[in-house]
Amino acid sequence: MPARPLASETLQLIAAVQNALAERLGAQATVEERPLFGCHAFMVDGKLCLAVKGEDLLVRLPPAQHAAVAEQPGVRALDPRGGMPGYFWIEPAGYATRVQWQHWVDTALAYNPQAKATPRRRKERAA
């Protein structure tokens, strides 16, 4: 079954993330875009940094700041049970201004060098 086309809002958000990463990182980092868990994910230096799903922006932040970030308006934890500390969905109201947008992108990029990469699973070879 072919994939459904993305809504124009989603495409605009993806383009905004692409532009922000190009502006801030230039050629100094490796950015890979790929589908991940129903999102359009941006892997920076092999680690999930940002993602887009619909009109929501996923950011990866320091797990130690989880409680403080979760209290902010327009923010919800990726896993409401707390199983993935540091991962947050930012709703459009949470990134509506230039200052808010820059905050989320810059904070996610600042944490990326310290973030642990998830090891890739090796595909089992057919015997």
Automatic annotation (TrEMBL):
Name the Pfam families for this protein.
TfoX_N
- TfoX N-terminal domain boundaries: 25-110
Source organism superkingdom: Bacteria
- InterPro entries from the xrefs? TfoX_N
**Protein name, as recorded:** TfoX N-terminal domain-containing protein
Question: Species name for this entry?
Answer: Paenacidovorax caeni
